[in-house]
User: Fold this.
Amino acid sequence: MVNIIRYPLDGELKLIEDDWQLIAKDSIHLPLNGRCLVPFSYWAENINNEDLQKKALSGDVGVWFSSDDDLPLHKETILFGLKIWTVVAVDFPIFRDGRGFSMAAILRDRYGWNGQLRAIGDVLIDQLLQMSKVGFDEFVLRQDQSVTVALDQFQIYSHRLQNDWRSHRAQLGGVKS
Assistant:
C-alpha cells in the first residue's frame, strides 16, 4: 500500500496509508469494491452511468485530472462533480510539467473546492512546498523519493513572504523611526 503525505489546511502534517485505487486512463471498468480515483475523461463520458453515480454518492469515487484536461471547457461537469467527489487528484506526468499547479489554483480559487486535493505522478520533494501553497494537501511521492526528507520540507520556513492558499504572508517587523 502506498503512503501519502497529508498536510491539511488547518491540521497536522502526517503520513497516512492510501486506500484509494487509481484507475488507469485507458480503463473501461470500475472495480466493484473499494474506493477508486477515476480519470476525469472516464467520469465525463460516464456521468449518467447509474453504478458510477451510486458509487460516487456513497463516497467511494474521486477523480484525477491529467495535465491535458481542459478545466474551463468542462466547468459545469466539474462543478457538478465537486459536490459528490471525495478526493480530487492532479497528475504530474513529468516534474517539468507545471500545469498541475494551475489546475490546483483553479480548483481551489475559482471552483471553490475545499476537499482533499492530491498530487500524483512524478511528484518530487523539491515541489512539495510550492504545491502546498497553491492548494494541494495530499502528496503521493515518486517511488524513489524519501518520505522522511519530504516530511522535513514543511518545517524549513517559518515565515511566508507571499500570500498563498495556505496562509497570508508573515509580517516581518517594521522600520523603527
Observations:
- Strands lie at 3-6, 14-17, 20-22, 35-39, 61-65, 87-92, 116-121, 138-139.
- The longest helix spans residues 99-110.
- The helical segments are 40-45, 50-57, 75-82, 99-110, 128-134, 147-153.
- The radius of gyration is 17 Å.
